[in-house]
TrEMBL record:
One of its GO terms (biological process) is protein ubiquitination. PROSITE patterns: ZF_RING_2 (PS50089). It comes from the Eukaryota. It catalyses: S-ubiquitinyl-[E2 ubiquitin-conjugating enzyme]-L-cysteine + [acceptor protein]-L-lysine = [E2 ubiquitin-conjugating enzyme]-L-cysteine + N(6)-ubiquitinyl-[acceptor protein]-L-lysine. The keyword Transcription regulation does not apply. It comes from Citrus clementina. Its EC number is 2.3.2.27. This is RING-type E3 ubiquitin transferase. Keywords: Metal-binding, Zinc, Zinc-finger. One of its GO terms (molecular function) is zinc ion binding. InterPro entries: Znf_RING (IPR001841), Znf_RING/FYVE/PHD (IPR013083). Residues 27-68 form the RING-type domain.
Length: 74
């Protein structure tokens, strides 16, 4: 991948809304717990992940890591 393509892909990374977690969940990317009260990124298909985990994932893929639904570009 050339530099222009990498920059373009990074600038089009989807921005996901965040929500405060009300019951303990695990991030399916890193497998660590998401603590009650912590902010987590939420996909349109209602899956939640640590923000840093899903941001890293979305730099490489435009689909949900769990169900593979396409995620809209920002």
């Amino acid at each position: 991948m050339d530099l222009r393509m990498a920059i373009n892909n990074k600038s089009n990374v989807t921005r996901l809304p965040e929500k405060r977690i009300e019951s303990e969940k695990d991030c399916a990317i890193c497998l660590d717990g998401i603590v009650v009260g912590q902010l987590a990124s939420c996909t349109p298909c209602d899956h939640v992940f640590h923000k840093r985990c899903i941001d890293f994932w979305l730099e490489k893929s435009r689909s949900c890591p769990l169900c593979r639904n396409d995620l809209p570009a920002s």
